[in-house]
Amino acid sequence: MKNKLTKNIYRVLVVASFLAINGLIIAGISAVLSYLNTGADKASILHLEEPMEKVYAPKVVWGNLDNPGRPMEKQTLQEIERDYLNAWHVRNIALKDNDVYGISDFYTDSARIRIIEHIDLNIKNKIFFKETTLSHYPELDFYSEDGTLVVFTDKNVERYQETYNKYSLLLHKKDTTNYQIMMLLEDGFWRIRHLQELEIEQNGIQNKERNLDSVLASITKVKGLNYYPKNTPWDTFGKKFNESIINKDFEIIKGMGLNTIRVFVQYDDFGKADVPSEKLKRLKSLLDLAENNDLKVMVTLFDFYGDYDITNWTLTQRHAETIVNSLKDHPALLGWDVKNEPDLDFDSRGKNRVLSWLKEMTTKMKQWDPNHHVTIGWSSPEAAIHLAEEVDFVSYHYYREPEHFLEAHNTLKSVVKNKKIVLQEYGYSSYDGFWNLYLGSEEEQVNYYKTMQKQLAENNVPFLFWTLYDFQEVPKAVAGSLPWRTRKQHYFGCFDYEGSKKKVFDVLDQSP
Amino acid sequence: MRLIYLFSAILCFVSCSSNEEHTSEGENQSVELLQHQKTYVAGGKIDLSFETESTSEIYLLISNAFGNSVLTPIKDKNKLHFTIPKNFSRKTGPCHWILVANGEQLLKDSFRIEPKTSAQATLETYFGPRSITAGIQDYSMLVNVTTDPFDNVYPEGTEVIFKSQFLNSISEYTVPSKDLISWKNIYSTTKSGRILVNTSFKNITSKELTTIVFPTLGEAFEIETDRNHAFADGNQIMVLRSGIIQDKYNNIVGDGTMVNFIIKNSKGAILKSMAPTINGIAKASILHPSEKEEWQIDAYITGAAKSNSVSIDFDAAITDYSYEFSENNRLITVGPLVSFMDQLVPDGILIQLEIFSETGQYLETKKVSSIKGLGKIEVPKEFYPDGSYRFICKTAGIIKEFEVTFNEE
């Protein structure tokens, strides 16, 4: 009996090992075959141009193109610009990753040695740099008759740089430098041959004169709300954009005796560095409707943007520049809010990183539109002390107990002294349900606003409350997916889902 | 050599004396730069030393046009020594440094590095376009960059000698550099040939570079024809030949210039032959016509030049021919075709027979080529039943018309 069992065990083992060995052999053969079938796609031999996503887009403005050599062709200039920026880009990446990938495409043999030496030294010393250039103002010095050599001076190259020593930030700085560059056309690429820093006078780009007195005076009279349409919250400018709905809402807002609305422009939705004209058209038509209803619009940019990394500074700047330039002359524009509640990203992205980005963006926006104010919508009065010097007036949000409001407001006021302050968001949800133990009610909301409006009126605090409507749908990106957080978000309005007035309407109605 | 030492010593002295005071920004972290040399020569040893009481970790952030780095000091009591690495000490231009402690900038300044002009220079020359056309307008451009042993560009105003040679003349120019380069246009000559150029600086010279001066566009030219005889035998080949085609500076146009010979015959049709030039002469061929003709010949270099017009006549080689019927008239034999010496014509003369019905309706054209002077055409009964037909025979431009009746019953 025992003998038979052992025999069976042996049988099973033999059969199993036979199957296993066969399996392994087949797997091995197929691995070899599939390895032999891998390799570059044959089409890659052709070096076909593939459209790349924009990764680096500093501002480039060519100055004088007259030169004693050959007249510059428009297309060649574009190619030179493209390869020159690529040269900066690959170098920025090389300094960040300490890897020379791509350097040989945009630097000639002798020039790339210098970069390789730098990288080698930085690897040895465990150092890396995050840097980006923000603007270039090149002027052509020379373009050779055979079209293969070009010399130009790149003036006022603005560069932001962070130095990391053994993986921790050592220093961050911004500088402006002038360079003279000689590039050669080699097998289809313009490559940097000589790069020379010039010691010429820094005639930095003149900041435009800003005349904000009248605009700032109007800030103190701001009475308004944060606006999203009833059926498309957090998607004002999407496919369901409807002028007649917005116009009706604006008529209601005007009827309430309010004079200002705050709207949100989402970074991804508005196409990142390349803003689609369709979106701009919708934003403009919203401002037109506001103008028709005597409303001013505060435009908040970079909603749902949360990276702040140096590598996409140039992209965010092109994004903002496009929007600012296309709206800066609109009569309904009140001003710019750079970012909604950026202090909430301090923990995840690093305070320094967020503040550096905001500071640079604020500076740039002031240059693009010198005639409107720039502010930042901080999430609390305590956070609003950041960059108080940079903003034209201070904005903050307050969702805490109304009894402590004045205290917090006055504390902020004493810190930022000479700046005007706007309460940019506040409000109370009338949600009454399981998730808040049936403790809320429309009466609670009425009481909240009564207390708040009284304080605001007595202290002349400009305000924008949250918001016109209760929302049936709130995207996950706004308050997450936890019901005790999101449910509340649905009931901040002074009109309900159906569009009929809630009890709080009478408190918020400012019409005489 | 001594002069250079003396000069650099003076330079140091001057630059030191013009230096401003460096004071530190942090109060408890007072740092003082110990030497104040502002200018160095590329490739030399550069050390920065500071004196400080601070105990915190101090780093030197250093940057030039090509990149940045961070240096750690060698401490010697209260002194800090930084040795500038060669990738910074060998690159000319401003070299910026920032002394950093605890994320704070303590001191900040820069020094300048000059090219090492005492060592042998390297000349980098770029020349192009490498082919130009003869005349007074076209030119090549010679660009020169003078660099030191560390690949640094010499200062602005460095004078470089440009030389160019053509035939017996050698020209020489001195050109000061500006915007990293010095350059000169090398203008074309009216004679075609090669222009050799080079540049020199002090005792070094660049390699020889060449541009080829090609003849410019051809001017009006003559053509002639060459043929064995004047008979239109459809067999001989006539040669169309241009004279030597030259440009306006009497340079023979470049080999391979395409010449188109356009022939207009007496019926207004255009015949064409073409040939590229060799040593300025284009030689094209064309077959004699097979009937009496009058040709008007012109030649062109497209977009550039036109020849004189040549007129040429061909006499008929075949003056007449006979024909006969056999096999119940169903086989028509044309010929024998004889040429100008009563010899049988070479094979291949086209014989064309047009067939019409009794009522004059066109039915068919039959074509054959002559073989041994004869052309045989069969009119099969399967297609052409008994009856009367009219035939028109065309051979060598001679037209004969006749009626035939098929009646086999």
Written overview of the protein:
Chain A is built from 15 helices and 13 strands. With 512 residues, chain A is of the alpha/beta class. Chain A is globular and about 80 Å long. The termini of chain A are far apart. Chain B is mostly beta strands and 409 residues long. In chain B, strands 19, 20, 21, 22, 23, 24, 25, 26 and 27 form a 9-stranded mixed β-sheet that branches. In chain B, strands 11, 13, 14, 16, 17 and 18 form a 6-stranded mixed β-sheet that branches. In chain B, strands 2-9-8-4-5 form a 5-stranded mixed β-sheet. Chains A and B meet through helix 4, strand 2, strand 3, strand 4 and strand 5 of A and strand 4, strand 5, strand 8 and strand 12 of B.
Supply the key terms.
heterodimer; A: 512 residues; alpha/beta; eight-stranded parallel sheet; five-stranded mixed sheet; 39% helix; 22% strand; B: 409 residues; mainly beta; Immunoglobulin-like; 4 domains; nine-stranded mixed sheet; six-stranded mixed sheet; 2 helices; 34 strands; 51% strand; elongated
Task: Please summarize what this structure is.
The complex is a heterodimer of chains A (512) and B (409). With 512 residues, chain A is α/β, with parallel strands linked by helices.
Kindly report the oligomeric state of this protein.
heterodimer
DSSP summary: helix tally of chain A:
15
Mean pLDDT figure of chain B: 88
Note the overall shape of chain A.
Answer: globular
The main sheet of chain A orders its strands as: 12-11-10-9-8-7-6-13
At the fourth CATH level, what is the homologous superfamily of the largest domain in chain B?
A: Immunoglobulins
Sequence stretches where pLDDT stays below 50 over 5 or more residues of chain A: none
Count up the helices of chain B: 2
From the spread of the alpha carbons, the general shape of chain B counts as elongated
Strand-residue proportion of chain B: over 45%
Distance between the termini of chain A: 105 Å
The end-to-end span of chain B amounts to 126 Å
Fraction of residues of chain A in helices? 25-40%
User: How does the helix and strand content of chain B classify structurally?
Assistant: mainly beta
- Cα-atom Rg of chain A, whole angstroms? 30 Å
Given this structure, which CATH class of the largest domain in chain B is correct? Mainly Beta
Estimate the helix proportion of chain B, in percent.
under 10%
Biggest sheet of chain A: strands, sense, closure? 8 strands, parallel
